[in-house]
Amino acid sequence: TADIELCSDLRNLSSKAEDITVEGVIMPGAIKFSKTVRVEAGQKGYITIDKRDVPAMSMQNPRLWMPNGYGDPNLYTCKLTCKTGDNVSETKTITFGIRKYEYRIEKNAVGYPVLTLLVNGQRVFIKGGNWGMSEYLLRCHGKEYEPKIRLHKDMNYNMIRLWTGCVTDDEFYDYCDKYGIMVWNDFWLYVAWNDVVEHDAFKANARDKVRRLRNHASIAIWCGANETRPVPDLDQALRMTVMEEDGN
Hints:
The protein is an alpha+beta fold. Helices cover about 20% and strands about 35% of the residues. It contains 4 helices and 15 strands. The strands form 5 sheets. Strands 4-3-7-8 form a 4-stranded antiparallel sheet, with no helix packed on it. It has a 4-stranded parallel sheet with strand order 12-13-14-15, covered by helices on one side. A 3-stranded antiparallel sheet has the order 9-10-11, with no helix packed on it. Strand 3 and strand 4 form a beta hairpin. Helix 1 runs parallel beside helix 2 and helix 3 packs parallel to helix 4. The longest helix is centred in the C-terminal third of the chain and has 15 residues.
């Protein structure tokens, strides 16, 4: 069983209170839903839709997303429409996968603690490469990511470690979802540079990143820094951000 939950902010930019309706359909399965909330003028509201609203959002025998070599990277789509009355203000299609990541620290043959990753209960032997930038001169965009990530699949890799999280193009993550390539996603701290001047700006940026990418099935690990640990204030903030925004 997989319980699907949709959560979103709603912003009313008009000068009067509005009844805002969010409706959508999840495929495959043709799971339809609709819910209306009232948001005051110039304010931000919040909406959640789950199995209490739509029993079908508790899915039986879902098509699971699995990493390359362990099964098919099955994906679902959710087409959303936001409107007031008959006026559509925004539409969006979200692609997502249903999977469960588990993390264990286990000792190896010589007693050294090693991070062990399980996906949908299956212990995974991680094989992958390190990705420094989208391309040396940052010329890689859109469909140009496809052959690069498909080659990782063809080489029987199942993970890309994203150095300092430097690739922000959505297409990178879309193709990782499609080909079953998990992503070890760093935040932008490394070696001696484990601190920043503006802590609040860093925290806001990090939270925005997690919110923007968390729906990707391929996101397996959020890593605080490259070859170091963030200073205590940032370390705690990153832990809380991941727990609050991507804790499921």
